[in-house]
Write a structure and sequence with these properties.
The complex is a heterodimer of chains A (283) and B (262). Chain A is mainly alpha-helical. Chain A is built from 9 helices and no strands. In chain A, helix 4 runs parallel beside helix 8 (218-244) and helix 4 (110-148) packs antiparallel against helix 9 (249-280). The longest helix of chain A is centred in the first third of the chain and has 45 residues, at 13-57. Chain A is globular and about 80 Å long. In chain B, 40% of the residues lie in helices and 24% in strands. The radius of gyration of chain B is 18 Å and the shape is globular. By secondary structure, chain B is an alpha/beta fold. Classes of the chains: A mainly alpha (283), B alpha/beta (262).
Chain lengths: 283, 262
Amino acid sequence: MWYHSRVPSQADPAVNERPKLLAILKEMVLLLIRPFVNVLAEIGLTVRLLAATLFWGVRPPYRLSLFMEAMEFVGVQSVFIVGLTGLFIGMVFGIQLVDGFRDFGAENQTGAVVGMALARELSPVFTALMVSSRAGSAMSTELGSMRVSDQIDALTTMAVNPVQYLVVPRVLAGFLMVPMLTMLFNMVGIFGAWLVCVQILGLDSGIFVDKVRWFVDASDLRQGLVKAFAFGLTISLIACRHGFYAKGGAAGVGQATTAAVVQSAVSILALDYVITSVITGGF
Amino acid sequence: MSAAAERDGRAQGADPVHVRVVDLVKSYGGTPILKGVTFDLYRGVTNVIIGASGSGKTVFLRQLIRLEQPDSGRIEVDGVDIVPLGELELTPFRRKFGMVFQMSALFDSMTVFDNVAFPLREHGKLSRKQMREKVEESLEALGVAHAIDRLPSELSGGMKKRVAVARALVMEPEILIYDEPTTGLDPITSRTVDELIESTRERFGITSVVISHDMESVFSIGHRVTLLYKGRMEVSVTRDELIRSDNVHVKEFLQASGVRMP
C-alpha cells in the first residue's frame, strides 16, 4: 500500500533518536533556567519571612527583653569593630584625597569630599558589611543550629510562634541599629580623616572642619540613613531566613551561614546602586 | 481540683477516641509519603506507631501536631478538625499537646530550670516563686532535680530525655508525644525511658503517642499499636492482637525485629 512507505518503522533510527533529543533539550533548558528559578525561590522565601515578621511583629506578646538582647548583640557589640573600621577608612580616604588633590592644588577640598562620601556611601555600606559579617553570620548560625536540633520545632509545639520569638527581635534590631552604627561610622570616619589630613599631612584644621560643615548637609545624612535602614532590614532578614530554614545538620548550618554572608554583601551593593539611582534620579 | 483530676473526670465520660486521623495525605515535591492514613489514638493509653524507616512515621507525627500542613485529610482532636485551622486558631490546640523530641531539643543556651520554666513564662501567669516550685516539683518527679542549674550540654542522654519530659509535662498537656524515645540509648537507659513513659502516663492520666521501632519498648509500654507501611496504615490493634495478626507486613516486621510469633 502507498501509505506503508510513509509510516516510519520502529527500526527507523530517526524515530528512536527523537525522544532522546527531546530529553536532552529539556535537560538543557532546565539547566539554563534553574539558576533563575533558584534566585526567584530565594527572593520568594525571604519576602514570605518578611510578611510573617510584620504579621507577628505587631501582635502580642511583646517580648521587650528579647528585643533589648538583640539590640545589644547587633548594636552595642558591633560598636568597637564599626568604630575601628570607620577610623581606618577615614584615614586612608584622607591620605588618598590629599595625595590626589595636591596635583591640582585642591587639597583644601578634602574635608568636603570625605564628609560627603562618608555620609552618602561609605558609612552605610561599610557599616552594613561589618554588621553582616559579625552579627548576621552569628544570627544565621544560631538559628540554623536551633533548626537542625529541633529547637525551633520545639517552640512551635509549646505554642510559641518561632517567627515571633526568634525572627522579629533580630530583624527589628538590625533595622534600628545599623542606622545608629552608621552615624557612629560617620563621626569616627571624619575624625580619622581629620587626624591624618591635619595632624600628619599638615592641612589647616579650620579649613578642613569648615569644608565638612559647609558641604555636608542634612540631605547627605538622610541619603545615608535611608540606605542604612534598608541595609539593616535586608541583612538581618537574609541572616534569619538562611538560619531559620537551614537543613542538613552541621554542614547545612555552615552552608546557611556562608550563603547569608555572601547574599548580604551582594544585596548591600546592589541595593546601594538602586537607592542611589532613585535618590539622585540616575535611573 | 487539680488539672490531672479534672482531666480524669472528663475522661470518664469522654469519647475513648482522643484523636481521629482520617485519610491523611502528605507529599514532598510530588512524592507521596502519607497516602491516606486513617486510624484512632485512644484516650488515656499508650498508642505506639511502628514501621520501617521511610514508612512515614515522623512525617505523620509532624502533621499530627501541625508542624506541617497536610495536603488533605482530617485530624480531629476531641472532635475538632485542626487541619484547616490557621496559626492563631491552632494555639489552644497546641497547648493540648506536649512533645518529647528524639534528640530532646532542649534550648542549649538555657539551664535546665529555664528550659522547664520556658512554657510557664510564655503562657502561665505564675509568680516567680510559684514557677520555681512547679519546676522543682516537675524535675523532682522525674528524678533530675539535682541538675536544675546545669546546661543541657552537661547532661547525659537519659537525663536530657527526663528534662524534655519535664518540660513537656509542666503545662499539663492532654496528649504527650514521644518521637523515637529510645533511639541511640543503651538498653538499660532505654528500659528506664520506657518506665518513665509508662509512669508519666499513669501519674498524669494523659494520652501517650510513641513513635518507635524498638519492639521491646512496643511490647513493654504499648496498649495499642499501629503499623505504618509505605505511607499507609496497615493495622491498628491492641498489643495482643498484633502478635496474633495474620497481616503479612506485621509478620514480616515482627520477624525482622526478632519477635517470636505464636
